[in-house]
């Protein structure tokens, strides 16, 4: 081991994403093969026993990088000293339920968690919100952590990004490794916009390679945007292993950088780029380097993209208004 353990707090540790996520963190896939981790698991009191069961299995993995596991039902304790916080615990959307219905149900969870992060997390804290509605939950947590730089609060659209890469690769009969510079804009919801106009396949423009606007508008975009619902319909439960995989990818790239010549998608507090109102936690193309991310600048946004980006961003603005009215921010 080459460095001191990094404290990783995971909420909702006894849930289905938690079960898929924790073993991969313990194996070193979140931060890299030289970084030992200490897991700090947060659950509601009724689920602490199940989290303890998962901790027994983690122990049985004999992971060389796993330097300890602590389990809490108190947010202040769970986030004390946290370097990375994965906010997964929330109520998953069930069949027929829209994300907006979840605002009120979940908002209450993220206010105390933001306060706890503010009170006790480490100075280099990085937060990823996975629990839905992820963008607005991140906004709630961030607004209750005034002492933490706002840009440390992010929400997950990497699953959408990965889904879009996979669908595009399939359409073009190309390996996923050849697809670069795809972007998810906006909200992690059915209004999101997967943009292939700047994407590349084997170094060539992907939109030109597809050359099929009907497929783009009527198949690709809805397929990616509604993939969460498709999984729920097929599995009878929301995506879990693919969501855990995306959370690993998001933090890994944030900490270790994005590959040269590519970018990824992260929902981050807007600085006004691309006309997205400042402060909204919206998905953008980002490049990560030296442990920081930056929104990719200077992309030309065509008319097809503009309307779709605006629609998703408007939904985020409406969610912000709704949680304001509920007194959650
Ligand atoms: P799950 O119901 O299996 O697990 C959620 C866990 O969170 C439960 O164990 C529950 O006890 C716990 N929990 C609830 N309130 C908590 C609190 N205040 N503190 C700590 N833990 C708490 O759900 P899941 O399938 O693991 O999904 C978790 C969330 O992730 C859901 O909101 C789901 O919609 C969301 N999700 C997001 C994405 C994305 O791409 N952003 C993808 C898939 C799922
Ligand atoms: C997903 O994208 O799979 C999740 O956000 C599930 C959902 O609630 O749509």
UniProtKB/TrEMBL annotation:
Entry EC number(s): 1.1.1.37
Catalytic activity: (S)-malate + NAD(+) = oxaloacetate + NADH + H(+)
InterPro entries: L-lactate/malate_DH (IPR001557), Lactate/malate_DH_C (IPR022383), Lactate/malate_DH_N (IPR001236), Lactate_DH/Glyco_Ohase_4_C (IPR015955), Malate_DH_AS (IPR001252), Malate_DH_type2 (IPR010945), NAD(P)-bd_dom_sf (IPR036291)
Record keyword Metal-binding present: no
SUPFAM superfamilies cross-referenced by the UniProt entry: LDH C-terminal domain-like, NAD(P)-binding Rossmann-fold domains
Residue ranges occupied by any Lactate/malate dehydrogenase N-terminal domain in the UniProt entry: 7-147
Active site: 188
Oxidoreductase listed as a keyword: yes
Protein family (similarity comment): Belongs to the LDH/MDH superfamily. MDH type 2 family.
Protein name as catalogued: Malate dehydrogenase
Annotated gene: mdh
């Amino acid at each position: 081991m080459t460095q001191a353990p990094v404290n990783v707090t995971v909420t909702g540790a006894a849930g289905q994403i938690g079960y898929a996520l924790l073993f991969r963190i313990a194996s070193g896939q979140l931060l890299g093969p030289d970084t030992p981790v200490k897991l700090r698991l947060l659950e509601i009191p009724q689920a602490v026993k199940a989290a303890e069961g998962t901790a027994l299995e983690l122990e049985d993995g004999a992971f060389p990088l796993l330097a300890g596991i602590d389990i809490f039902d108190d947010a202040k304790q769970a986030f004390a000293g946290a370097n990375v916080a994965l906010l997964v615990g929330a109520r998953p959307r069930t069949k027929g339920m829209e994300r907006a219905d979840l605002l009120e149900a979940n908002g209450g969870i993220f206010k105390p968690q933001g306060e706890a992060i503010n009170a006790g997390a480490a100075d280099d804290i990085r937060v990823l919100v996975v629990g839905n509605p992820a963008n607005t939950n991140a906004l709630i947590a961030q607004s209750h952590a005034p002492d933490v730089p706002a840009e440390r609060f992010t929400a997950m659209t990497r699953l959408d990004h990965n889904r879009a890469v996979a669908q595009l690769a399939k359409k073009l009969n190309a390996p996923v490794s050849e697809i670069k510079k795809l972007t998810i804009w906006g909200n992690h919801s059915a209004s999101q916009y997967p943009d292939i106009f700047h994407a590349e396949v084997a170094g060539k423009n992907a939109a030109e390679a597809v050359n099929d606007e009907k497929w783009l508008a009527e198949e690709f975009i809805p397929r990616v945007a509604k993939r969460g619902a498709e999984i729920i319909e097929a599995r009878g439960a929301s995506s879990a292993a693919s969501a855990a995989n995306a959370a690993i990818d998001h933090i890994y790239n944030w900490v270790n950088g994005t590959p040269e010549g590519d970018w990824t998608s992260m929902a981050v507090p807007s600085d006004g780029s691309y006309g997205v109102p400042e402060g909204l936690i919206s998905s953008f193309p980002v490049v990560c380097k030296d442990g920081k991310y930056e929104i990719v600048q200077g992309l030309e946004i065509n008319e097809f993209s503009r309307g779709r980006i605006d629609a998703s961003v408007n939904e985020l603005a409406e969610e912000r208004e709704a949680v304001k009215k509920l007194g959650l921010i």
